[in-house]
Amino acid sequence: MSLSSDRITPRRDGIQYGRAVAAGKILYVGALACLNTTGYLVPGASDNTLIADGVAVQFADNSLGADGALTIIVDKRVHRFNNSANADRITIANIGDNCYVVDDQTVALTNGGSTRPLAGEISDVDDDGVWVKFN
User: Fold this and answer.
1) Which residue, 4, 56, 103, 109, shows the most beta carbons closer than 10 Å to its own?
2) Which domain holds residue 60?
3) Are residues 47 and 89 in the same domain?
């Protein structure tokens, strides 16, 4: 039904979200945090990882907890990660392309034969790593 009066519409800034942590997982501050296929947060390319979600802003030790026993904040702004090596190394020629999660601090140019989840878009590359914009 269409509005017939003013409405206060909830909003989010699109920068930080609270995310429930998967059972048995530990995330460190600064880790590349991913969502698994059931919607819980895992570090890097852990089991059943679907897509990168951002960077963990808080430490979470859910090694003894059930899915969702802990919730942490994930930041979706552009962040710098370690660059992969050899054929998976990202260069400035790849700016604007997608990159993929290797672990909780490294990204690569390829999806590793469909074994790596999408990290996001390559925003920049410098001597210290790859700047990633999360989708």
Assistant:
1) 56
2) 16-75
3) no
- Model confidence pLDDT, tens digit, residues 51-93: 999 999 999 999 999 999 999 999 999 999 999 999 999 999 9
Name the one residue in this structure whose structure tokens are 């660059």. Answer: 83
pTM: 0.89
* Both tokens assigned to 112: 């590793």
- Residues 21 and 66 both lie in one domain: yes
The verdict on residue 10 lying in a domain is no
Domain's final residue, options 75, 98, 116: 75
- Quick check: helix, strand or coil at residue 16? strand
What is each CA distance from 1 to 11, 12, 41, 106, in whole angstroms?
A: 20, 24, 36, 47
Q: Is 85 helix (H, G, I), strand (E, B) or coil?
A: coil
Question: Are the CB atoms for 53 and 99 separated by under 8 Å?
Answer: no
